[in-house]
Amino acid sequence: MAAEIQYVHGYSAREADRLADQANTLSGLLHHDTVYPPGSRVLECGCGTGAQTVILAARNPEARIVSVDISADSLAQARARVEAAGYRNVEFLRANLFDLPFGEASFDHVFLCFVLEHVERPAAALEALKRMVRRNGTVTVVEGDHGSWYCHPRTEEASRAVQCLVDVQARLGGDALVGRRLYPLLAEAGFRQARVSPRMVYVDSSRPELVEGFSKNTFIAMVEGVREQALSLGLIDPDTWEKGIADLYRATEPDGTFCYTFFKGVAAR
Amino acid sequence: MAAEIQYVHGYSAREADRLADQANTLSGLLHHDTVYPPGSRVLECGCGTGAQTVILAARNPEARIVSVDISADSLAQARARVEAAGYRNVEFLRANLFDLPFGEASFDHVFLCFVLEHVERPAAALEALKRMVRRNGTVTVVEGDHGSWYCHPRTEEASRAVQCLVDVQARLGGDALVGRRLYPLLAEAGFRQARVSPRMVYVDSSRPELVEGFSKNTFIAMVEGVREQALSLGLIDPDTWEKGIADLYRATEPDGTFCYTFFKGVAAR
User: Fold this and answer.
1) pLDDT tens profile A174-189
2) DSSP per residue over chain A, as a string?
């Protein structure tokens, strides 16, 4: 399917590792406050390979979770991951976000993480999901914002390499800067009482687990993942790219710093 | 004195109001955890018009605070502000950060807020301050980082207007992006156990007090303050400037968002 082929981060083994690193490193920061009452019916939309699904299942052992994704391969990985972790409260289903096989108000809560950034019409996606939620049920949306990234030392080439990721994602119809838009998107989709909170990751050498788990293995790995696309689209020349990536690693040295912000929005139907 | 004339934000009445708005809006975020034991001798370096001094005095009524600044006019305003607020635990003294009239280890703690951004050699400034602190005493540094700013909707002109503030400050020998450098600067100055934490301000229309107190009256007011300098230095043309400022205000409307991050570092001698 086109949507599979065009996923900006691809479907490689390294990417699967990156997603797992990202989920583990950021689990507390992003998900500590996603706790649903026992018995809740929760729809996870765009579960991918299940990196967030295991966290959701662990934090909500008495919720009944239905996780959908458009990619059969990803779903198979997600299912295996959740089974390996020993959770039995998740069902998996292949489905398109805009054509979900559920009736109106079938769920108490909807959860989506790193999904809207890849969707061409994020407000329409939220509207479609709103119909799945009962009155006073909630939607929880977690997204990054690559425009929130900066580092020290800073160089033009590092910024240009990161911009390639933003541009490649834009060419695929996505928006890598969607985090800052969560509040207006939730309002546009007709949700009420939206509350958005930033979740900033600040990294210096006093936090070595973040230097490895976030700066290198999550963020720089994600930028490196679009190398071929960026070069073949002519967004950057190879020398600038190599220098940009080297400069990103330079900012992970003992006198460097690295910043990035995720956004989490919760709103009611 | 040259240092007075060249203060990037100037010394106008509007600027004094802006500093007060900024201090009130951000007081909790930036200063809630600056609490010194009773009897502590605290040096506040670069107190300006006392916007932070009153907060420091209020939170530490039993500390003995000495606040210094290079500007006699600012000191007079600071003294009046602190007296009007009824605090009696602050002494004021005119002095240069690099030539302080105190002996080695005269203080238990040093505090500086929005000072390093204006200093040409911030690591040397921290080294000079380190000599004022006793062994195991602390330094607390609070700085902004204008490169951490972004908004929605975003436009090229808004970014260029903000960049003018960064560029004007750089021409005066300052660094408006110093926040991200606090950790390496503290290390370079020889402080130990540095711990830096970001203090992010996220603004959407569900937080009207921040729309007014931060986005408009602190940040946009600060950008607007360099209009004449930016135009006369040829950093931007008038049309682009006006559009940039209008776009910044656009991001304070109900469907806009606004982000900025301060950094706070605490380290021991």
Assistant:
1) 999 999 999 999 999 9
2) -HHHHT-TT-S-HHHHHHHHHHHHHHHHHHHTT----TT-EEEEE--TTSHHHHHHHHH-TTSEEEEEES-HHHHHHHHHHHHHTT--SEEEEE-BTTB-SS-TT-EEEEEEES-GGG-S-HHHHHHHHHTTEEEEEEEEEEE--GGG-EEES--HHHHHHHHHHHHHHHHTT--TT-GGGHHHHHHHTT-EEEEEEEEEEEE-TT-HHHIIIIIIIIIIHHHHTTHHHHHHTTSS-HHHHHHHHHHHHHTTSTT-EEEEEEEEEEEE-
> Across residues B96-117, what is the average pLDDT?
96
Q: Which of residues 155-184 of B touch A (CB under 8 A)?
A: 177, 180-181, 183-184
Per-residue pLDDT, averaged over A92-98, amounts to 95
- A150 contacts B148? CB cut-off 8 A: yes
Nearest to A184 among B197, B200, B255 (CB): B255
Contact A188 B259 (CB under 8 A): no
| Percent of chain B at pLDDT exceeding 90 | 90
Mean pLDDT of A191-210: 96
The ipTM, to two decimals, is 0.90
CB nearest A198 (choices: B181, B200, B256): B200
**pTM score, whole prediction:** 0.92
Q: How far is B179 from chain A (nearest CA, A)?
A: 10
